Amino acid sequence: MKKLIERLLLFFAGLPLLIAIVFFFPHFNYLLLHLAILACAFFAIIEMRDLLSRKLPVAPLWFALVAGLLLPVAAFMHAVFGFPYRLIPFSLVAACVTILSYEFFAGFTGKFDHAVGRLSSSFSILLYPGYLIMYLGYMTIWTDAGAYLSLFFMMVFGCDSLAWFFGMILGKNNRGLVPASPNKSLAGFFGGYFGAIAGAVAAYYMFNPVFAHRLPSLVIIAFVTATAAIIGDIFESVLKRSSSIKDSGSGVPGRGGVLDSIDSVLLAAPVFYVLTSFLFGL
């Protein structure tokens, strides 16, 4: 019962809070949202490093934060302060060079046993969550960014919350489809798609001047975004099961850690960004 209450509070408080941040605080190119993205990236990198450290050698925490935050910070500088877009690919190159340089200098110690493990963990942190989360910042540059961001959050929150709710209510006899996440059920998957499409329909009517006559496109985006969100959720479950932990952290009631809370968002954000840009010509 406690977990049910926590999940319901997260849905009924978290989603409106995100939409409120988007709509009532668009000042300075959605500065408040960008700061929230950077905070999530910061804590998710810490949790990801801790998770990987259970199976792989890892670089020091300060190094993981520097390498992992370069891309989100570059996206922040581009979207909020208008720095040229080329700052982002430059930052990607800088992050790669930084990671490789660490091993270059470590090589002078003559200890090479853990180099492959450190490289694997460092590049994993650079990609997940560092690279993937920056697509949330990209969306703030779009015209009518508030409507598109609200659409995205409604889809992902709808998918995540109704997948959990349908799985809890109707999934008792159809669980175990995914060994990495045995509580996932067929009913939960259907609930996730239903939640994402319901979010798209709700956004269509809430922001009709922006999405008028585009409902079929929104349904397509919802279906593909929900698929990415579900894969992102399962992927993190694979990481946790491999590392023999239940949650990535304990800071978010009803969810575990920050990484547990944004696992669906991380893969869904770039998929939503690319597909919406294509279908809406953004």
Characterization of the model:
With 282 residues, the protein is mainly α. The chain has one domain. It is 77% helix and 0% strand. It contains 10 helices and no strands. Helix 1 runs antiparallel to helix 2, helix 1 packs antiparallel against helix 6 and helix 3 packs antiparallel against helix 4. The longest helix is centred in the C-terminal third of the chain and has 28 residues. The chain starts with a helix and ends with a helix. The mean pLDDT is 86.
- Net shape: globular
Mean pLDDT: 86
Give the termini separation: 44 Å
Strand content: under 5%
- Rg: 19 Å
Instruction: Name the helicity range.
Output: over 70%
Judged by helices, strands and strand pairing, the structural class is mainly alpha
Number of helices: 10
Helix and strand pattern? HHHHHHHHHH
What can be said about the biggest beta sheet? none
Kindly give the count of domains: 1
Ranges with pLDDT <50 over ≥5 residues? none
Number of strands: 0
Which structural traits does this protein have?
282 residues, mainly alpha, 10 helices, globular
Write a brief caption for the model.
This protein is mostly helical and 282 residues long.
